[in-house]
Amino acid sequence: MLNMRLSATHFPRMTAILLATVFLSGTEAQAQSATIPLTLPEIQQCLCMQPKLQPLQDAWLEKQRAFDEQQAQLATVDKEVISQRQKLDPNDIVGQQVLKDLLAQQQGLRDTIAVRSLPEVNQARDAYNAAVAQYNGICTRPRYSGDEAAARAAPLVCVAQ
Question: What does the alpha-carbon distance between residue 117 and residue 128 come to, in Å, rounded to a whole number?
Fold first, then answer.
């Protein structure tokens, strides 16, 4: 019984050591692959990719701004609906029509957000994130190979593809 207690207390420590070893060896391999320098064509490709990021980000932020404005409009209409319902007299036909109009406006905003605005925001965000991931996958390593002088002498410009 004493033997089982000792092994049970050592098990978490052994597991932690094993996990740390696996993690560190994986990190070392990633660090080594990340230090492979960029080639001249990769640098040129990065120079072509970089200017394309800002318009994608701007488009995403514009879609997000429009989406946020519609969400704010919906919140305002939601409050107006609640207020109108609370003060509505069952015999007030004009008040009932105002409430119906507010409900129609509320549903219209919800439909627009769900069908158009949210998909546009998601699509713009996904396009930007994909471009950033592609850029980071290629362009975030050290810039020069072993022959740094030759790499510096080469023109670092975007070569049209």
Answer: 17
Cα separation, 159 vs 54, whole angstroms:
19
pTM over 0.70: no
Q: Could you state, in order of their start, the residue ranges of all structural domains in the chain?
A: 1-34, 39-153
Question: What percent of the chain shows pLDDT beyond 90?
Answer: 55
What is the dihedral sign for C-alpha 46, 51, 54, 55?
A: negative
**Which amino acid does the sequence have at 15?**
T
Q: Which of 147, 160, 146 is nearest to 36 (CA)?
A: 146
Tens of pLDDT along 73-122? Answer: 999 999 999 999 999 998 999 999 999 999 999 999 999 999 999 999 99
- The pair of three-digit structure tokens given for residue 24, joined into one six-digit string: 């560190």
Q: How many Å apart are CA 116 and CA 67, to the nearest integer?
A: 9
* Dihedral angle computed from the Cα positions of residues 154, 158, 159 and 160, in that order, rounded to the nearest 10 degrees: -170
Q: What is the token pair recorded at 93?
A: 């036909």
